[in-house]
Amino acid sequence: MSVQLDQFGRKFPARAHGNLTPSVAADAVVFRKRQDGQYDVLLIIRGGNPYKDHYAFPGGFVDYNEDPLQGCLRELQEECGLIGKNPSLITVAGDPRRDPRGHVVSIVYRIDVDEDAVPIANDDAKHAQFYPLAEVLTWLDRLAFDHADILRQAIRSLENDARI
């Protein structure tokens, strides 16, 4: 029996209620404003594939019976040891090609943490750190998945908040 592949060459997932459904993930974008008025952004270095050793936002798959926001906060705590607060929705990223493992829809939130909070990598994060946003913008090709596009959207949301 041959394995059926989708148009992107990936195995089809198991059917749920007769339907093929994507997986759901949640990602946290955490900015921190510095005293000079510039921003830092929290990134992890992925410890596993896909995109091993690439930079990414903390996040992961939403558990069954878990609200995506709670999943986002859980992943932030598991991967970085940080307690998130004041969530706001940035985007829902759903391009079927965004994850080589299969169709994964990610719900992305901007999350605040205490200004003196120090990330400590854990779970599947090899490293976790705040990086100067201006520096990250010079190496967007080192971000996993579609996180460069998500970062651009997060920056727009930050700019929109600054105008209020």
TrEMBL record:
Residues 21-153 form the Nudix hydrolase domain. Keywords: Hydrolase. The keyword NAD does not apply. Gene3D superfamilies: Nucleoside Triphosphate Pyrophosphohydrolase. It comes from the Eukaryota. GO terms for molecular function: hydrolase activity. InterPro entries: NUDIX_hydrolase-like_dom_sf, NUDIX_hydrolase_CS, NUDIX_hydrolase_dom. This is Nudix hydrolase domain-containing protein.
